[in-house]
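Running this now, will post back.
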Amino acid sequence: MTVTMPWRSSPVSPWDNDEILRAELFSSERLEQHAASLAAAQPVTRRRSARRSLNARLKDNESVLLSAYRSIAAAVEEGHAITPAAEWLLDNYHLLEEQIREIRADLPPGFYRQLPKLADGPFTGYPRVFGLAWGYIAHTDSRFDPDSLRLFVRAYQRVQPLTIGELWAVAITLRIVLVENLRRAAVRIVSSRAARLDADLAADRLLGVNGYATEPDALARRGAGGDAFLPAFVVQLVLRLRDQDPNTTPARRWLEERLISQGTTADEIVHEEHQRQGTANVTVRNIITSMRLLSDVDWTEFFESVSPVDELLRSMSGFAAMDFPSRGQDRTRDCRRGPLGRRCGPGGRDGGRGAPA
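Update: finished.
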């Protein structure tokens, strides 16, 4: 499905927020249904759109993740406790660096430009395969499994076949989305830790400890602007003040009244923040585990198992009996002759790329 869409000066961007990419967790059957619905809702366009490139976003992600890594490492050196999610990032940063190197090597600008681009939605102007990978990662909580991905891609192609170039790009695009999601988790790790440190400082002033004089109104002055406190700040402050007498330390009562006026309570925020931290720990673990597994998969075998071109050629000749290089030559020859149509993609030869991403 190729359409021409009117020019959009400022389409919605997938980079508009830093929420961790995590949607409803789908079963295999529901994942296939979602792939089919995505394919039906993702027309492509030949019109170029002035969007920030994935390589530019990758560079930004690399910078944010390095800053987070250094912040976590400094905290450990200072003897501070860190969350399990922070430990995963700290212990596996070398793996992240490998993933970024592979993305840069396997996504040259020429190949990127040839991938069919989406015509509508938040991914307008980005490769269609990027939208596919985003949907898969979101509904698996970043847990990559070759079999579930195979089902997902096949279900997508029953509605809308992908080009050869797009199928080669599946692996590298999954890496891009996983790095993006790790960046989002890392931002939350660092901001939550900063909020806890801020709460400790507020508690020190309220209680007159660690070198500070007692400031009973420190919390009220800090909240004078009316802005809501970050959940991590509230949780840490509640922890520090939980054994204090409300009559001698009224800040706990003030905090409760402030939260009630905002439609919540300290207990609710503590419960929700612990849930968020638990799910973030799982997501970061899934991201790291998936990155490892992505490097172990035989992507040539995966490509041939989901390629409509290969399926067609296997039914027409002795294609299946050939070795992989010979099948690649046969695939290229038939694409150049034109009998396979849009399945080959632009460039007529593996969508402009002859090796797996």
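The chain is about 60% helix and 0% strand. More later if anyone needs it.
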